[in-house]
Specification:
Layout: H1 3-7, H2 11-31, H3 33-58, H4 64-94, H5 97-119, H6 123-139, H7 141-171, H8 173-183, H9 189-227, H10 233-243, H11 249-265, H12 271-295, H13 303-317, H14 319-338, H15 343-349, H16 355-369
């Protein structure tokens, strides 16, 4: 179809075409979740491991297959070490389960007394309601156990296929690059190559910055909790660092977990308030100082699009969608910024520039187009 004819189409036809394309795209993404989710994760990690694999291949003269496999094993060892550190902390937490039960029993007694005095509901009625609810939950226990086992098996398969895909992405990276360049017309090959290089640079910068940010947050929170005398400070610091990968939502999830653990183990209930204050201050410093400095402004997306992306990602793919939403939006922003007809979408994804920067750019453009007087 001629481009001029396409531009002359009525607005409602263009809108219908866009909506139909979006619905079809979302349907394909939801249907192909089991395939696309590990593929995108493996693509991100293969971009992260690409310099290491190239170093092994070029400097140490290893075959590409051996270099790719060694890079995947290194990543697996790092993830295994992190999981071992968390598991060792959780094992000591399990030993305090009687203390948890005792604290929960005391809290239950306090809550029942408050309900009895405020709403005039006797403890007998409260216990009857709790018992009936528990029986209903236990009646569906078989279904819950089956669903949990199915989720664990799906998670295991997800990790297995992700590492397999990482290996193949590293092994066939040049073949994939040639394929992406050959799909488009010759006059667009340079633009496609530039976009691919920019995507690799930005994604690598984003993931490395995110890992550094996670390590800093985990260390700071662990030290602060240790100073406050909170039990399991290292475990709560690691949990906060991991949850912090999800912007905005992650830190508040970590706040709930840390407050619950502290409430059950601390002798003084006011310690929970110190935990909340510590995590809120950490979040403010992280989002306003640490994130721009470590991750960088090139991958920053405005808060509205970030929250919407996380919510939509969770609706489409669940927890993996929450993790993948920000990198996917960052890639889309790179593509939109480089294609003239899509630049307006790149603007809405990014941050609003300060007024001084906008004025400087405007003056610079005017100076370039100014005609010198004769």
């Amino acid at each position: 179809m001629d481009l001029n004819l396409l531009k002359s189409l009525p607005f409602y036809i263009k809108l219908a075409a866009v909506l139909f394309s979006l619905i079809a795209l979302v349907y394909i993404v939801v249907t192909a979740k089991e395939i696309l989710s590990p593929l995108i994760f493996s693509c991100l990690f293969s971009i992260l491991l690409l310099p290491f694999a190239a170093f092994l291949e070029n400097k140490l003269r290893l075959p590409r297959s051996a270099a790719s496999m060694l890079a995947v094993i290194t990543l697996l060892a790092c993830i295994g070490g992190l999981l071992y550190a968390i598991a060792s902390q959780i094992s000591s937490l399990v030993s305090d389960w009687p203390q948890f039960q005792d604290q929960l029993h005391k809290s239950q007694e306090t809550l029942q007394d408050w309900i009895r005095s405020s709403f005039h509901i006797t403890k007998h009625k409260q216990n009857t309601f709790v018992a009936n609810t528990t029986n209903k939950v236990m009646a569906s226990g078989t279904t819950v156990v089956g669903t949990t086992l199915l989720s664990l098996s799906s998670l295991l398969l997800f990790f297995v296929f992700t590492f397999i895909y990482i290996f193949f992405f590293l092994l066939y990276r040049r073949l994939i690059m040639r394929f992406l360049e050959s799909v488009f017309l010759n006059e667009n090959k340079k633009l496609v190559h530039d976009i691919i290089e920019q995507v690799q640079f930005i994604i690598r910068k984003y993931i490395i910055g995110l890992l550094i940010e996670m390590a800093i947050v985990a260390t700071v929170v662990s030290l602060a909790f240790t100073f406050l005398g909170i039990k399991y400070a290292i475990l709560l610091g690691l949990v906060t660092g991991l949850f912090n990968i999800i912007p905005y939502i992650g830190i508040f999830s970590a706040l709930i977990v840390s407050s619950a653990v502290t409430f059950a183990t601390a002798p003084n209930p006011t310690t929970v308030l110190y935990v909340v204050i510590t995590l809120v201050i950490t979040h403010l410093i992280d989002s306003n100082v640490l994130l721009p400095m470590v991750v960088g402004s090139k991958v920053r997306i405005n808060a509205l699009i970030t929250v919407l992306g996380i919510i939509i990602g969770e609706m489409i793919w669940g927890i993996p969608g929450m993790f993948l939403s920000i990198p996917v939006i960052a890639v889309l922003k790179i593509i939109f910024d480089r294609i003239e007809s899509l630049k307006s979408w790149g603007i809405i994804l990014g941050y609003e520039e300060p007024k001084q920067n906008r004025l400087a750019k405007t003056l610079k453009v005017k100076k370039k187009v100014a005609v010198p007087r004769e």
